[in-house]
Amino acid sequence: MSGVSIFLWVIVPYVCLAIFVVGHYWRYRYDKFGWTTRSSQLYERRLLRWGSPLFHFGILFALAGHIIGLGIPESWTSAVGLSEAGYHAMAISIGAIAGVATLAGLAILIYRRRTVGPVFSATTRNDKLMYLLLTVTILAGLSNTLLGNAIGQSANYRVSVSPWFRSIFYFHPHPELMAHAGIGYQVHAISACLLFALWPFTRLVHVFSAPIGYLTRPYIVYRSRTPQQLGNRPTARGWERVGGPRG
Ligand code: HEM
Which of 51, 76, 164, 247 is the most buried (most CB within 10 A)? Predict the structure, then answer.
């Protein structure tokens, strides 16, 4: 096994995962009030209304596909009677729709970020790096799904990329599996690892937010105008209303 393979498929993934875990702990301890999407809805809504749902619903479906494709061994799906051809037909149809929606959403969000002045001003250097890694990861992933199937290479990712991915979590890594995977899969996996390392230092921390109602609430929680809208809930310390009954 070459040193490059060990570096790329053992050292990089473990270092990135360690930064992901320790980074989230650090961010939660020291930047609780910065645990936010840093929403820019106040500056622009029209493009956000299209870009954000396209991106988020696309990525949720892609995530479900990854849990199945990377987490479930080929032998298990065969054992329940799902043939490889059947599995890939499902993966390419759902995966392609999810991937195209994610990419279209991301393109709208990046276009918005670049062209709407106040949104661009609120974009940090970390954000720019995050968008770059997201774009590379998603482009490489989608090209694997589309081209990999077209040139017949996708058939083998469940016996190369997927067992390598699982081997990282068994603490018994198999770098040789990735060393022989196609270049598209290699670029996708490395940019995903780098994205995981950057994750805790970006707005992506909002993915780990509770409660789940966060998925459906407005981007920004606006204050209610009338006392009736507040209900009977007692005011928490530090959140007293200012300026009398109409606040
Ligand atoms: C090390 C982690 C990852 C591995 C091993 C991995 C592996 C894969 C594989 C094998 C495919 C092709 C699926 C097929 O052809 O059916 C794929 C597609 C894709 N990946 Fe990943 N991936 C990883 C992380 C990510 C991340 C972090 C993102 C997004 C930020 C992402 C986004 C996508 C998208 C959008 C597609 C195309 C649509 C789809 O098939 O779901 N991947 N990935």
Answer: 164
Q: Is the CB of 164 under 6 A from ligand 1?
A: no
| Ligand 1 atom closest to 62 (CA) | 41
What distance in angstroms lies between residue 155's CA and the mean position of ligand 1's atoms?
Answer: 15
pLDDT of residue 85: 83
DSSP conformation letters of the chain? --HHHHIIIIIHHHHHHHHHHHHHHHHHHH-GGG-S----TTT--HHHHHHHHHHHHHHHHHHHHHHHHHHS-HHHHHHTT--HHHHHHHHHHHHHHHHHHHHHHHHHHHHHHHHSHHHHHT--HHHHHHHHHHHHHHHHHHHIIIIIHHTT-GGGGGGTHHHHHHHHHTT---HHHHHTS-HHHHHHHHHHHHHHHHGGGSGGGGGG-S-GGGGTS-SS-PPPSSGGGGTTPPPPTT----SSTT-
Is this structure's pTM higher than 0.90? Answer: no
Nearest CA to ligand 1 atom 16: 91
Give tens-digit pLDDT for 235-244. Answer: 666 566 655 4
Note the pLDDT tens digit of each residue in 13-38: 999 999 999 999 999 999 888 888 88
Protein residue whose Cα sits closest to atom 18 of ligand 1: 141
